[in-house]
């Protein structure tokens, strides 16, 4: 049974999530503040954390940093903060996905299923990935067609493909590919993403796999 730690200071949300998750056969523990969440994460070893950013004692981003100091368990952020900057900070800190309050329980459950599936994927399963009609071999850096990618295109593509379904922030990709000095050069990334779509997507204007999350980043949708 998948163990989920829900962290929120609103009792009605904790109760609703506990009931809905338990009804779907998840094992649920709860915490109402950041310090309790960090202790509970150590004690209960959850498979997934659902975390509110607006906690009474610690900012949710600080909780993410605390968790990422010792674990790679998936983290879904819940927050009433609708601004992109808060989402970007949470993602850069190590969150795997972000749902804005108010949210539908079906949407949250879909995100839970997606991140738990991703967490169970082994590295060997990522060696070969399909995008449309193209089979991409990440180990040997080859594509089952006459398409050729530049080293930079490979680096960007690999960053996305190794985290299927996960929203990767622009800052994270820019830092990974070009270095920390280039975190504001988002036009570089837009140009390369456009090139990748032209080479790999059936319809580059309406991509099915290399998805843009406006103002935030990109996501590979298997």
From TrEMBL:
Domain Response regulatory: 3-116
Gene Ontology CC: cytosol; protein-DNA complex
Biological process terms in GO annotation: positive regulation of DNA-templated transcription
SMART domains per record: REC (SM00448), Trans_reg_C (SM00862)
Positions of the OmpR/PhoB-type domain: 116-222
Main location as per UniProt: cytoplasm
Protein name: Response regulator
Keyword Phosphoprotein belongs to the record: yes
Source organism of the structure: Nonomuraea zeae
Record's keyword annotation contains Lyase: no
Record feature DNA-binding region, as residue ranges: 116-222
PTM-bearing positions, type 4-aspartylphosphate: 52
SUPFAM superfamilies in UniProt: CheY-like
Entry's Gene Ontology molecular function annotations: cis-regulatory region sequence-specific DNA binding; identical protein binding; phosphorelay response regulator activity
InterPro entries linked to this entry: CheY-like_superfamily, OmpR/PhoB-type_DNA-bd, Sig_transdc_resp-reg_receiver, WalR-like, WH-like_DNA-bd_sf
Xref: PANTHER family: KDP OPERON TRANSCRIPTIONAL REGULATORY PROTEIN KDPE, REGULATOR OF RPOS
Keywords: Cytoplasm, DNA-binding, Phosphoprotein, Transcription, Transcription regulation, Two-component regulatory system
